[in-house]
Amino acid sequence: MYNYSKAVLDSTITERIENFDKKFSFSIVINCTKENQKYLENITNSIREQWYKNFKLFILVDNENSKEEISKLNVNASTINIEKNKLFEVYNDIIKTDENDFICFLESYETLELSALYEINSKLNERDLDFIYTNEDYIQNNKHIKVNYKSNISQELILSQNYIGKSSFFKLSILKKIG
Q1: How far apart are CA 106 and CA 161, in angstroms?
Q2: Fewest CB within 10 A of the end CB: N or C in the chain?
Q3: Would you say residue 165 lies in a domain?
Q4: pLDDT tens-place string over residues 123-139
């Protein structure tokens, strides 16, 4: 049986954050459609409360109501309007112009564990990585209903299913080269 235990920020972790050899910068891009606007507060809270603070937040909206809701959330974000069927053009524009080290694309119904950026920066201080994929934990009505643990990288899985899609962090310089 899976038992979730919430990560706790303590003085040891705070000191480690202050003393990281490399402090990577992250861009987090949230796609917020009108249909998923109701989840926006949860995801922005999970990002605003990250222990590791070296990130920039982009929120993509498809209607003016979302912009109004974002302004109420006390979150520092760049808000970008997207036209219907233009999402990937906006993603590509962000990739071309952004100067952070890594980028992550999320949907507004997702959240990040409060320690997520800290853990990722920790791994990046240990090894030179081009992308990091994470496990997924499905939550409904504040209950953890399904955990998707992803094993070590498997070429077969990557080629046969959407294995790395959600909550993955990609080195921005690699995406710029790909175009």
Answers
A1: 18
A2: N
A3: yes
A4: 999 999 998 877 666 66
